[in-house]
Amino acid sequence: MHRDFDLSFELRVALTDHYGRKSEWPHGLNIARDLLVAMPLAWPDELARFLRCCQEANAHHREHGRHQYYEHSLSRSLMREYGTENDPDRNAAYNIYRTIRTIAGEQAADQLLECTLQVLTEAAELATT
User: Fold this and answer.
1) Centroid of chain to Cα 54
2) Residue 50 and residue 117: Cα distance in Å, rounded?
3) For the chain, what is the total number of helices (H) and then of strands (E)?
4) How high is the mean pLDDT of the chain?
5) What is the percent of the chain where pLDDT is above 90?
6) Rounded Cα–Cα distance for residues 116 and 37 (Å)
7) Are 74 and 97 in contact (CB under 8 A)?
8) Are 35 and 100 in contact (CB under 8 A)?
9) 2 exposed, middle or buried (CB, 10 Å; 0-12, 13-18, 19+)?
10) What's the Cα-to-Cα distance from 81 to each of 84, 86, 128, rounded to whole Å?
11) What would the 3-class secondary structure string for 27-71 be?
12) Is 10 a residue whose pLDDT tops 80?
């Protein structure tokens, strides 16, 4: 990863490409972006790994989990990936992501997740070239 990589800026560009000007973004999306950038996980590897778990939980919840809380799907996905290891940074990221879904709404949070994973993937590819 390049030292001068700015996740906040790259996400803003990706979200602007998707939604248009910042004034056209869904309510709460800018704050959600700031919260995501503040997650205490290493970029790009740990953050991408965590967000892939969130993506898996989102898909499971859409397909099967309407009768259960979203947090249950997310917890199961994280336990499959990380086991029962208790990590304070991951616990903080879990709570931050739940807050993101509350602030931005389910659809905007899903789009933020997709944009973030795309940005992290592109940044990782650039770092290896």
Assistant:
1) 7
2) 10
3) 6, 0
4) 92
5) 76
6) 9
7) yes
8) yes
9) exposed
10) 9, 13, 25
11) CCHHHHHHHHHCCCCCCCHHHHHHHHHHHHHHHHHHHCCCCCCHH
12) yes
Residues written for the chain: 129
| Distances, alpha carbon 67 to alpha carbons 29, 63, 73, in Å | 26, 11, 11
Q: Six-digit token pair at 59? A: 């898909």
Nearest to 77 by CA among 98, 50, 44: 50
Q: What digits encode the pLDDT tens for the residues 74-106?
A: 999 999 999 998 899 999 999 999 999 999 999
The structure's pTM equals 0.91
Q: What one-character DSSP code corresponds to residue 23?
A: G
